[in-house]
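Hi F.,

I've been meaning to write this up properly since the lab meeting, where we talked about keeping a consistent format for the predictions we share between groups. The idea is simple: the sequence comes first, exactly as it goes in, then the structure tokens exactly as they come out, then a line or two of notes. No screenshots and no reformatting. I'm using this chain as the first example so we have something concrete to point to.
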Amino acid sequence: MAALGSKLAQLQSKACEATRLAAKHGCAYHKTLMEKNKHYVVDPPTIQKCQELSKQLFYTRLASLPGRYESFWKELDGAKLLWKNRSNLKVENAGVAALFGIELYAWLCVGEVVGRGFTLTGYHV
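Output, unedited:
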């Protein structure tokens, strides 16, 4: 229990240090960031303009769905062709496919843990 208290004190100390660093350099960082990206800022930055841009982004993404849908089916057809000709498949290609599948599964597991609030059992302590 003492080790846990020690770790907590270390964590608290590091959090305080990070807060001080952010307070000291945060304004300068924000100013530099905004200066570097000022060509992306709409003038004047009003609520109405933000809402308009939000709608533009939503409908632009919605308009891109047919192209994405078509690309998905092309990729699927390519995967079906590979599966049909699997006897000609090289070991390297099968290894890459297996690693890709393992990576997808690992991301799924990480997503599940994040969704449960970074707990492994689902119970919060």
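Notes:
Helices lie at 2-36, 47-63, 65-84, 91-115.
Residues 61 and 110 are 27 Å apart (CA to CA).

If this format works for you, I'll send the rest the same way.

G.
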